[in-house]
Design a protein that fits this description.
By secondary structure, the chain is α/β, with parallel strands linked by helices. It has 19 helices and 14 strands.
Length: about 550
C-alpha cells in the first residue's frame, strides 16, 4: 500500500492548536469535543482511519464501541486500533512508538506481535532463557492453548527473533512494545551486574525493565533459584539509589516498582515446573482462555525418555535452520553433516521407545482378548516399568471379566508404593490368583496398601514379594492382614531385611499374629546366595521352629 498525505485545510502545528472543535465528527477524539485537543488526538484519528481502511466503512456511533467491535483483520492490527482509540489520551501510544511498532517484524516467527517477551541477563541466564522460550511454545502447542483471538502462543527471545544486523534499541524495544506480556528472568547474576554497570552506563536489562514499566501489559517475574536451602529474593539486594546512567529514574525505584508484580521462583534445572503457573497467569490476565488444568500424572520411564528425545530433535532442527542462515557454504555443509547424523540417531531411538511403550499396552489388551483360549499368565517382568506404567496396566486389566482368574508377573521392574496401591485396587476385584512382585521397591508403605487389599481378597493363593526392602515393619503389615484372609497359601518374603530374634517383642508378636491365620501353608523367609548383606533376613532357629508349627497345623512347611 502506498499512502499519500492530503487535505491539510484544517490542520495546525502543535504550537497553534485551535481550542474549538474542527473536523469530521466520526474521526474526532473525545477530548476535542471537550476543548482539550493535543498530539494524542491525532493518534485517535489515525486509529479510526486504520479501522476505516481495513474495510469497516460504517463507523460505530459511539467511540467506546471501537474498543469492543469485532474487526475483520489480523490480531496485531486489531490491537493497534484498540490502542490508538483508547478513550484516555494518556493510554494511547505516541507517534514514535507507532512508527517503531509498524516498522518492526520478528525474524523467527515472521509476525509483528508476540504473546510473551522474555527479558534476561545473557551472561548468566542464556541457556535458561533459550530453554524457557522453546519449551513454553511446545507446552502450549501440546495442550492446544491459544490466545483469545485464536492465535498460537509465541515467545520473543533475542536469540531467535532479532533480525540480522538489528541494533539493540530497535530490536529489543520493538519486541517489548509488540508483546502482550513480559516475563522477566532475574537471577543473582542479573542483580550483581546491574549494581556494577547501571550507574555508569546503559544496562540493557534495566533498560528493558524501564520500557516494560512504561506499558500497562501483564508482567511476571521469575526468580532463579540455584541450590537447596538458599532462596534468592531480588528485593533483598540493595540496588543503587541513583539515576540509571546519570539520567532518569533511580535504579532502586525502578526495581521496587517491578517487584510489585507477580513473582514466581523457578529452579534453573527444573523450568518445566513453572509452565502451569505461566498458563494461569496468562489466563488471569485475559490473554488466553482459562481451561481446567488437570494434575500432571507421573510420567513413565518410557514417556520421560520420549520427551527428552523429542526435545533434542527439535533443538537439532532449530540448530540446522540457524546454521543455514549464518554460516558460509563450507562450514555449513560440515555442520549440517554432524547435525544430520545425530538427528538420524535420535529419531531411531524415538521410534524404538515409542514401539516399546505401545507394546506394553498391546500386550495387556491382547492378553485380555485371548485369555479364554490360551495361557492365563501375563508376564511383564524385567521391562523397566515404573508406577505410572503399572497404573496403566492395572486400569486395562480391570476389564477382565469377573469370572476369569489369571496370574500376573511384574518382577524385576522399578515399582514402588504407588504401584502397590494400583495393584491393591486390582486385588479387591478378586481377579488375580498368583502375583509375582519380586525385585521391586514396595517397601513398608507398599506392604500396607497390599495388606489392606488382602484382608477381603478371595482369589490370591500365591504372593512373591522377595527383594522389596519391606523390612520387619512391612512384614508385620502383611501378616496382620492375613488374620482376615482365608485364601492365600504361599507367601515369599526372601531378602527383605526382616529381623526376628529370640526374646524380642517383635518376634513374639509376629508369631501370635501369624497364628490367627488358617490358610497359609508356606512362608519363605530364607536368603538367596548372592544377595546384598543389607537385605538379608535374620530369623533365629527358634522363630523358624515356631513358624513351622503354625504352618504344620495348616498342612504346610517353612523353608
Amino acid at each position: 500500500i502506498n499512502a499519500e498525505y492530503g487535505d491539510f485545510g484544517d490542520s495546525k502545528t502543535k504550537y497553534s492548536i485551535r481550542p474549538e472543535p474542527v473536523g469530521t465528527l466520526f474521526f474526532m477524539a473525545p477530548e476535542i469535543l471537550n476543548g482539550s485537543p493535543g498530539p494524542h488526538s491525532d493518534i485517535f484519528s489515525f486509529g479510526v482511519c486504520l479501522y476505516f481502511l481495513l474495510g469497516n466503512l460504517i463507523l460505530p456511533s459511539r467511540p467506546k464501541e471501537w474498543l469492543t467491535n469485532n474487526i475483520s483483520s489480523t490480531p496485531w492490527a486489531i490491537q493497534l486500533i484498540k490502542d490508538c482509540c483508547q478513550e484516555n489520551p494518556a493510554s494511547r501510544p505516541t507517534a514514535d512508538a507507532l512508527l517503531q511498532q509498524l516498522s518492526w517484524k520478528c525474524k523467527s516467527h515472521s509476525i509483528y506481535q508476540h504473546t510473551i517477551f522474555i527479558s534476561y541477563r545473557q551472561r548468566c541466564d542464556l541457556e535458561l532463557a533459550k530453554n524457557l522460550a522453546l519449551d513454553l511454545e511446545r507446552y502450549f502447542r501440546r495442550h492446544q492453548v491459544e490466545t483469545r483471538d485464536g492465535q498460537p502462543i509465541t515467545v520473543f527471545l533475542d536469540q531467535n527473533c532479532l533480525n540480522d544486523g538489528e541494533d539493540w534499541t530497535h530490536g529489543f524495544i520493538g519486541g517489548i512494545q509488540n508483546s502482550k506480556s513480559e516475563i522477566l528472568v532475574i537471577s543473582k547474576g542479573t542483580v550483581q551486574d546491574m549494581k556494577k554497570q547501571a550507574p555508569v552506563r546503559v544496562d540493557n536489562v534495566l533498560k528493558e525493565w524501564e520500557e516494560s514499566l512504561l506499558k500497562s501489559t501483564p508482567k511476571m517475574i521469575l526468580t532463579v533459584q540455584e541450590s537447596e536451602g538458599v532462596t534468592f529474593k531480588p528485593w533483598e539486594e540493595n540496588l543503587p539509589d541513583e539515576p540509571h546512567n546519570k539520567n532518569g529514574k533511580q535504579i532502586s525505584q525502578t526495581a521496587a516498582e517491578l517487584y510489585k508484580r507477580q513473582v514466581t521462583p523457578v529452579w534453573r534445572n527444573q523450568i518445566e515446573k513453572v509452565f502451569v503457573e505461566v498458563e494461569k497467569w496468562l489466563a488471569h490476565s485475559d490473554i488466553i482462555n482459562e481451561r481446567i488444568i488437570q494434575p500432571t500424572p507421573q510420567q513413565s520411564q518410557a514417556d520421560l525418555e520420549l520427551e527428552k528425545l523429542t526435545q533434542r530433535i527439535e533443538i537439532l532442527e532449530l540448530k540446522r535452520e540457524e546454521q543455514n542462515r549464518r554460516s558460509n557454504d563450507e562450514s555449513r555443509e560440515s555442520q549440517n553433516r554432524r547435525i544430520d547424523e545425530e538427528l538420524r540417531s535420535q529419531k531411531l531411538k524415538l521410534q524404538e521407545l515409542s514401539r516399546q511403550k505401545e507394546q506394553i499396552r498391546g500386550v495387556c489388551c491382547a492378553f485380555i482378548e485371548t485369555m479364554s483360549r490360551s495361557s492365563k499368565i501375563l508376564d511383564l517382568s524385567g521391562r523397566r516399568l515404573n508406577d505410572a506404567d503399572c497404573q496403566i496396566i492395572c486400569s486395562i486389566l480391570k476389564q477382565v471379566p469377573s469370572q476369569k482368574k489369571f496370574s500376573l508377573n511384574l518382577s524385576s521392574n522399578n515399582l514402588g508404593p504407588l504401584s502397590a496401591k494400583s495393584i491393591g485396587e486390582l486385588l479387591k476385584l478378586n481377579l488375580i490368583c498368583k502375583l509375582y512382585l519380586s525385585g521391586n521397591h514396595f517397601k513398608e508403605a507398599g506392604c500396607r496398601f497390599l495388606g489392606e487389599a488382602l484382608e477381603g481378597n478371595s482369589s490370591l493363593i500365591r504372593l512373591d514379594l522377595s527383594s522389596n526392602e519391606i523390612r520387619t515393619e512391612g512384614a508385620f503389615a502383611l501378616i496382620g492382614s492375613l488374620s482376615q484372609n482365608r485364601k492365600l497359601q504361599i507367601l515369599k518374603l526372601v531378602n527383605n531385611g526382616i529381623l526376628l530374634s529370640n526374646g524380642k517383642t517383635e518376634a513374639k508378636t509376629f508369631i501370635m499374629i501369624l497364628g490367627q491365620n488358617k490358610s497359609l501353608q508356606t512362608l519363605k523367609l530364607s536368603n538367596s546366595k548372592n544377595n546384598d548383606s543389607s537385605s538379608r533376613n535374620d530369623v533365629s532357629d527358634q522363630i523358624h521352629n515356631s513358624i513351622s508349627q503354625i504352618l504344620g497345623r495348616n498342612h504346610g512347611l517353612i523353608n
